[in-house]
Structure formats: structure tokens, C-alpha cells
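#structure-requests
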Amino acid sequence: MRTICVINLLFAVFSLSAQPSCSIGIGNIVSREQERIEINAVLNTTMFDNFTYIGISPRMSTRKKEIERAKLHIANQIAMNRFCKIDYGFVSNFNNDFYRDVKDSNIDYKDDMTEEICEELNVVFCRYFSELTIVAARYKEPAADINFKVTRNNNVPPWWIYEIPKIEGWYVGVGMSNPYSIPYRAMVVADINAAQQISLEKNAFIRTWTYDKITEDQSNSTSAGQANLYSGDVILSSAELRGLYIIDRWIEPDGSCFYSLAIARK
């Protein structure tokens, strides 16, 4: 079992020697918005069977390295699908004049088999875009036993962004991320946030607190001082998940927000 800070999970550099199975480029350069429509079309895991995962890679020095990184992304998803433990904490403090919050998260899962998993992946397709490489690959074990499909309608956002689906026997979480300079990072942040939402649904401690702070008026010794009301929230969660699976992803055509739809077995 390995404890991984989210920042390390997102940005660590990996290197494997797995040989890619295919290489398909997008050909002509298209507009950024049109390209995101094409990206969204292939980020939909539900258009495949339940043995298939979607892996993502940033642009790297060679196509081979990009495919290796995407396969490792898939291997880590498979490891977390078997079992993962998510710890999440959020504390906020605010009044009329300011707002401040602190949050942190850790994910524990067994990652000692990821290289072996990479070797067992059967790549279905690879797509190269200006900022991302996307790989779909099948694994010998099914990720989930559900029949859930999401249809695409060009650049219209999928309905699950506005209404979280209800899937019998499964927790469901939607994660969001603001854009990063490297879109790959934003997409992985959205994945992790979706897993955190499931963790909160399964096991969460939530409290709201308030307190009065009296500020004395130093210029007037007879003054009783001024009372300021402070409020805040505390949200804590620690949950063990099995069957964690990212079943769809979406990027706003203008790149303003990234979304992930995840499930985990109840």
C-alpha cells in the first residue's frame, strides 16, 4: 500500500518500456474549439465495453513516450479500481471582509503492479491532438458490471454535468477543474475531484461553526469594542472505494472547465 499526495500523483514523471500497439494522428490542424469537440468524442468511456479504460498524456518528446504515459495513466486507474482509500479535508473561514480556505487530499492504493498491468493492456486506439494524446485500452478484468451509456451531441455538454446520475448499486461523483497551462493536469484533477465526491457521499463529517471576535477601539477607552462574526465549514472524509471507474469526461469547448464522471461500487 502506498500513500500518494495528490500533487505527486498528478505531476510525477514516469518512464516505461512498453511498446505502443498503434498510432493514429488527427491529420489536419483544426481550430481549438473544433479540436475539443473531437477530444470530447473520444473521452467518452461508455462508448466502449466495461473492459476498456481511457488514458491521457500531455505532449512529450516522442509519440512513444506519450502512449507509454497514457498506458501508465490507465494502469493506475486499474489499480485504484481494485481498491483505494481516499482521505479528504476542507476548512474555511470567512466574514464580511474576507474568505480563506485550506484543503488537502491523499489517495492510497497498491501501485506495485502498474508495470505488469501496462504490459497486459491491449490498445484499441490512439489519438493525437495539439495538447493531449488519448489512448483507449482493454484489460483482462472488467472495470464495472453496468450498462450505462452517454451520447454526444457535438459541443453540447452531457446531461450528467447538471444532474448527477443515479445508478443502482453504485456511488456516483462528478468532479470539476479549472484550466491549467497543461490540459492533462486539469483532466486528472477533475478525475480526482470526482473520486473525492464519492468519498464524501460514502463517509463525510460536515460541520459549520461561528464565533464572535471583539475588536477594541484603542482611541476610546470607554468603548465596548466592535463585534465581528466569523463563520466557517469543516468537511472531513475517509473512505475505502472499490470499483472506482471514470466513465466519462468533458472539456468545455472554450477550455474554461474540465469535468469527470466517476462511479464506485456500493
